[in-house]
């Protein structure tokens, strides 16, 4: 009985030591932020696809629709997203090659032009996010109105800004009779 207990103890010790060695070796190679960028990209992709599908589904005649005076129209909202996507990454030190200004919300109103800039803005931000060095995520950068933010804060702003206006565009699309494409029942 003693011998079998000793053998069992020896086997368990070797097993636990082996597992802990494998686990410890693996931990050296694990960067806790590796999955963060992938999660951000996945979340951002979802917002992009939905915003773009709404922009394409809403008829051009409704692009000038607004819920009330002084509130952004559909085209102004989509342009606001696009301009923001091209503007915000400058706080990460990456400027867009597109010339943009905030007055474009009112001056670019044709559906094809709005969608073209929206697509370019998504390409730009996807490129920016994919090139972020995860080791620098917590570095402080200059931000809006002489404020400070971490790099991670700037990236989160890009994503949350898109989700914020996605919600707005869902309400706008339903107001003009367009059901979001992903909500339509299969026929």
What does this protein structure show overall?
This protein is mainly alpha-helical and 187 residues long. It folds into 2 domains: 1-30; 35-182, dinb family like domain (Four Helix Bundle (Hemerythrin (Met), subunit A), Up-down Bundle), CATH 1.20.120.450. Helices cover 61% and strands 4% of the residues. It is built from 6 helices and 2 strands, in the order H-H-H-H-H-E-E-H. It has helices at 2-28, 34-57, 74-87, 104-107, 111-130, 151-175; strands spanning 140-143, 147-150. It has a two-stranded antiparallel ribbon. A hairpin with a 3-residue loop joins strand 1 (140-143) and strand 2. Helix 2 (34-57) packs antiparallel against helix 5, helix 2 (34-57) runs parallel beside helix 6 and helix 3 (74-87) runs antiparallel to helix 6.
Short description:
This protein is mostly helical. It contains six helices and two strands, in the order H-H-H-H-H-E-E-H. The protein has helices at residues 2-28, 34-57, 74-87, 104-107, 111-130, 151-175, and strands spanning 140-143, 147-150.
Q: Describe the strand arrangement of the main beta sheet, using strand numbers.
A: 1-2
Low-confidence stretches: 15-32
Structural class: mainly alpha
In CATH, the homologous superfamily of the largest domain goes by the name dinb family like domain
- Quickly count the helices: 6
Number of E strands: 2
Report mean pLDDT, rounded to a whole number. Answer: 85
CATH architecture of the largest domain: Up-down Bundle
Percent helix, as a range, is: 55-70%
N- and C-termini, Cα separation? 71 Å
Largest sheet: 2 strands, antiparallel
Instruction: Domain count, please report it.
Output: 2
What name is given to the CATH topology of the largest domain?
Four Helix Bundle (Hemerythrin (Met), subunit A)
Residue fraction in strands: under 5%
Overall 3D shape: globular
Task: State the oligomer.
Answer: single chain
Q: Compute the gyration radius: what is it?
A: 24 Å
Order of helices and strands: HHHHHEEH
CATH class of the largest domain: Mainly Alpha
């Amino acid at each position: 009985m003693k011998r079998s207990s000793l053998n069992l103890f020896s086997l368990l010790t070797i097993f636990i030591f082996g597992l802990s060695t494998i686990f410890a070796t693996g931990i050296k190679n694990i960067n806790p932020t590796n999955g963060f960028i992938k999660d951000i990209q996945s979340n951002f992709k979802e917002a992009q696809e939905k915003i773009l599908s709404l922009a394409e589904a809403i008829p051009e005649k409704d692009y000038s629709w607004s819920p009330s005076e002084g509130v952004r129209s559909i085209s102004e909202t989509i342009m606001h997203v696009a301009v923001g996507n091209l503007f915000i990454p400058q706080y990460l030190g990456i400027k867009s090659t597109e010339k943009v200004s905030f007055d474009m919300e009112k001056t670019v109103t044709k559906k094809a032009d709005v969608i073209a800039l929206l697509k370019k803005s998504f390409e730009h931000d996807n490129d920016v996010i994919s090139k972020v060095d995860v080791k620098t995520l917590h570095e402080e950068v200059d931000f809006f109105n002489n404020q400070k933010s971490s790099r991670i804060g700037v990236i989160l702003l890009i994503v949350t800004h898109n989700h914020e206006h996605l919600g707005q565009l869902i309400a706008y699309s339903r107001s003009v009779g367009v059901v979001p494409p992903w909500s339509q029942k299969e026929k």
